Amino acid sequence: MPVIALLIGAVLAAADQLFKMLIVNNFTLGETRPLIPNILNLTYIRNEGVAFGMFSGMSWLFIVLTVLLLSFIIFYMFRKRPDSKLFYFSVALVIGGGLGNLIDRCWRSICSFSRIKRKRKNSMTAHKLTCESAGVRLDKFLADAGLELSRSMAVTLIENGNVTVNGKPCSKKQKLSAGDTVDVTVPDAEPYEAKAEQIPLDIVYEDADLLVVNKPKGMVVHPAAGNYEGTLVNALLWHCGDSLSGINGVLRPGIVHRIDKDTSGLLIVAKNDRTHKGLAEQIKAHSFTREYEAVVFGSLRDDEGTVDAPIGRHPVDRKKMCVTQKNSKNAVTHYRVLSRYQGYTHIRCVLETGRTHQIRVHMAYLGHPVAGDPVYGVKNERVPFSGQCLHAKKIGFVHPVMGAYMEFDSELPPYFQAFLHKLQNISK
């Protein structure tokens, strides 16, 4: 009986692996498919730990515990040889489940180790820079060198020995001379693949090629440092599965254009590369309709106007954009006043170009930043507001597959309407 129980357990473990190979491996994480139509559905979820996800990521612990438990059960079964057939049946089930679990965890651990090993081979990018002017501090030189490094990141690289000046170790406060050669090795960013999450979406339109989504205020569009969960991309992966364009990689599947976290409104998402390319070409040709509504601080002098001012990275604060002639791109925003209040103006903006933070930067450039803007706004506003009062209200484009012009409009969200109502009461 012990040998039979052991064989049955091995067969169950093999059947478990065969089932996963034939069915589960064809699923996308979070995907649901009918196993028996209208009766039984399968949803692919993954738990790397035990109950409620506890001890996730500790595969080595579960491998050791599983080996010890199976060894004890098999030893007890051959040593004691109980007479109960129910005991051997139960042991066979435990052995089958344990072996299947052990195979899964061992295989994932081996795959993870292989990925880490591959990453380490090409985990650093080397740069050779030449200083053109004397007297600049090394950390500032690196931050301004176009390597997309913040000053704190530059300091970390120097302290870790990733930077040399003329082949010699250096300090962050070291001042460079003209002609100095600076060698810096920058660790490559760890690749991250966005995961599907069951997050409700406000879908305005959807077909086989694209969808238009009304993004709420406070939602990040795609995963990035500090925001790897709860993003629009995580929600789209749950809704669309693999049906998203791959042009922008695993972090931004389907994303053709973006709006800021605290900006609400309409976004178009491509389900395939053909649609993505067609929409991107329209954006590049400035034939893509994008209208926003915003409340800005102060009273605009003219009822309508155009801001034609190039936008580039801020020379000091690399996280900000600004109007500048240096390393910039042309940016054009048309605006029209919709209503005026005491100390504020409600406007509509039409984008001719689509630069990062374009409306926020252009309005701040005019001296009328978007209300509540934490980056470009005023410090002490008359009417407190958290996060910029900016909504992507209308979007229009030619469908890349059907060839017809499509336009969608969205209502002002509750937060926007509530702020306007507050301004109306103050202005009476």
Write the layout of secondary structure elements.
Layout: H1 2-22, E1 32-36, E2 40-43, H2 59-80, H3 85-121, E3 124-130, H4 138-143, H5 151-159, E4 163-165, E5 181-187, E6 203-206, E7 210-215, H6 232-240, E8 264-270, H7 273-284, E9 289-297, E10 304-308, E11 311-313, E12 321-323, E13 328-329, E14 332-341, E15 344-351, H8 358-365, E16 390-398, E17 405-409, H9 414-427
Parallel strand pairs: 8-16
Antiparallel strand pairs: 1-2, 3-5, 4-5, 6-7, 7-8, 9-15, 9-16, 10-14, 11-12, 11-13, 14-15, 16-17
Mean pLDDT across the residues is 82
Q: Quick one: biggest sheet?
A: 9 strands, mixed
Structural class: alpha+beta
Ends distance? 90 Å
In helices, the fraction of residues equals 25-40%
Gross morphology: extended
- Number of DSSP strand runs: 17
Following the backbone from N to C, one meets helices and strands in this order, namely: HEEHHEHHEEEEHEHEEEEEEEHEEH
Poorly predicted sequence stretches spanning 5 or more consecutive residues = 118-122
Oligomer: single chain
- What percentage of the residues does DSSP assign to strands (E)? 15-25%
**Count of helical regions:** 9
- Rg measurement, Å: 29 Å
